[in-house]
Amino acid sequence: MRIVRELPEAVRVVRHVWIPMRDGVRLSARLWLPESSEHTPAPAILEYIPYRKDDHSLPGDEPRHRYWAGHGYASVRVDLRGSGDSEGILMDEYLPQEQDDAEDVLAWLAEQSWCTGRVGMIGISWGGFNGLQVAARRPPQLGCVVSLCSTDDRYADDVHYMGGALLGIDMLAWASTMLAYNSRPPDPQIVGEHRWREMWLQRLHETPPWIEAWVSHQRRDAFWKQGSVCDDYDALQVPVYMVGGWNDAYTNAIPRFLEGYRGPRKGLIGPWSHNYPELGTPGPAIGFLQETLRWFDHWLRDRETGIMDEPQLRVWMQEWAAPSPRHAHRDGRWVTEPSWPSPNVQTGALAIGSRGLGRPDSADAALSCHSHYAHGADAGNWCPYGSTADEPPDQREEDGRSLCIDSEPLEERLELLGRPTAVLELTADKPLALVAVRLCDVAPDGSSLLLARGFLNLTHRASHEHPEPVPVGERLTVRVELGAVGQAIPAGHRLRLSLATGYWPWIWPSPETVGLTLHTAGESRLELPVRPQVAGEAAPPPFGEPETGAPLPVEAVPGVYRAGIESSRDIAIGRTETRVYRDNPAERILESGIEVEHLMHDTYSVVDGDPLSASAVCRSTTSVGRGEWRTRVEATSTMTASAEAFLVTTQVEAYEGDTRVFARSTERSIPRDLV
């Protein structure tokens, strides 16, 4: 529950202002200005994203930006070029054009009479990405960044590839969703009763299906290096606060960034999914807006808040929880690290033997891995949002579809903090193969809690930039880095390492059925980041209860909210089908009367034994309207594969009222590149 307190300052809201770009295009911005800024300039806080500042994201934007403005900051939300009410076309994620525009926005902000010329950037996901990317440009106005649920490596840790393997779930769905989002019209009240249709038709005709570019670049080439700040941390020269959650898809970037960047930096990892920590689920949520004030006051107002005197990294050490597709709360405690890598974390290694983890073989044992094609059906969503049942459930069925190696029951409690790594000595029977690795906590009752997972396209074993076919039958030693974890495993529980040759629908299958052989008497081992519990370890100061500004008045239009993941299996033909759905019924923004609705249905299927049967069908329908003005966009994207290529089709239809005003269908065959 968030506390709404009376803010120190009254806030004036400017619903729309144009910001000119160097090429003549104008971006639309919404301002929350503290009353005092009329006579005393204030530092500014910028959030810069494509999710429609006046309807789609406004219910979430309003309480945060009002809070910052009520504490003396000029708070600004800008729609990216080609989104919301901004002019132009949004051609793809994180392009240099987006960063050019951001520099123009920062320069414009610094010139306003209500701004001191000092600006901080904040954002979650897309806004967290571009905060880092803009910082690498070193604009003089930018004083600091808060980057939530984001990444410094667009290839390794985004919704496209993992371990050099092509993502199935969420990648096509996200491309389909953004195709629908980018095809929505601007608001006639903002851009004009005649201009809106012209802008809408331009978007419909010129917005490309981003999925084609994403699948066309299957290696870590210049396409992905652009915007990946990990390739040159020294380009950044501003303080950065990296924030995320153990249940989010982007957490790996936080320890990597803290290790790689040498400028002022802090990290925070809670139990949360892909959301702001003051809303954090699984709980506990925290007083994150107060934390951002401490950060901005220190770097934009030169106030001594003590925030930089505190440890560099603060994490929620999670206790065991019964496996569930949704956790409202995760028990645990806050722990701190003075720096990362931490002097408190040691690497512990468990040999992988035929008798189990930690029981090495004196002579080589060859363990066969021919996993079921339904392996991955209980994976949960790639990026959980915390509001739906989209976490991985009990892994016992998944364990039964894979090769499992268990430890003996732990004699004492074990705490992990960091990224486990599986070192595997393997042979493969096909030149294109992948390995999926899961680490689970198996309780005495047999329940299996997923702790971390990782993937490696074995053609990428030496390089994501220069892959090579797998030499069939030849022993290879590979390292598979699993996702970051902060977890306590109780005494009496077992660790379970699971290996599989696929993980659908998260990962596209190899073009042929693959068999792997794991060799146990050589290098094969599990490396664990062990953080010994320190007796009398002092608890860090509490964050305080979540606070926020007043919420935006919104009226729900009658409808049914549905969200979740369902899997089913046709035993007769061996088909496994996974359905992901998120239906958000319309809501009306009372400020403007505008109504928005978004429906998303995705279906992933595969037949056991037939990797080329894998298919993904993703449908997004989004509506925007007010009174008699009604628009709807329907986008459908499908993806299948042959042994040689991925086949991608997209369809877009747009309606004004009941009249279809636009339709387009595209089809593209994209060669497989050692994937």
Q: What is the terminal-to-terminal distance?
A: 46 Å
User: What percent of residues are in strands?
Assistant: 35-45%
What helical percentage do the residues reach? Answer: 10-25%
Quickly name the level 1 CATH class of the largest domain.
Alpha Beta
How many structural domains are formed by the residues? 3
Judged by helices, strands and strand pairing, the structural class is alpha+beta
Q: How many beta-strand runs?
A: 35
Low-confidence stretches: none
Gyration radius from CA atoms, angstroms: 25 Å
The CATH homologous superfamily of the largest domain is termed Alpha/Beta hydrolase fold, catalytic domain
Mean pLDDT: 96
CATH topology of the largest domain: Rossmann fold
- Principal-axes shape call: globular
The helix count comes to 11
| Main sheet attributes: strand count, strand direction, barrel closure | 10 strands, mixed
Major sheet: arrangement of strands? 2-3-5-4-6-7-10-11-12-13
CATH architecture assignment of the largest domain: 3-Layer(aba) Sandwich
Describe this structure in words.
The strands form seven sheets. The chain has a ten-stranded mixed sheet, with helices on both faces. Strands 28, 29, 30, 31, 32, 33, 34 and 35 form an eight-stranded antiparallel sheet that branches. Strands 14, 15, 16, 19, 22, 25 and 26 form a seven-stranded antiparallel sheet that branches. The chain folds into three domains: 10-154 and 226-319 and 327-337, Alpha/Beta hydrolase fold, catalytic domain (Rossmann fold), CATH 3.40.50; 161-225 and 554-590 and 593-675, no CATH class; 346-530, Galactose-binding domain-like (Jelly Rolls). The mean pLDDT is 96. The two termini are 46 Å apart. The protein has eleven helices and 35 strands. The chain has 675 residues and is an alpha+beta fold. The radius of gyration is 25 Å and the shape is globular.
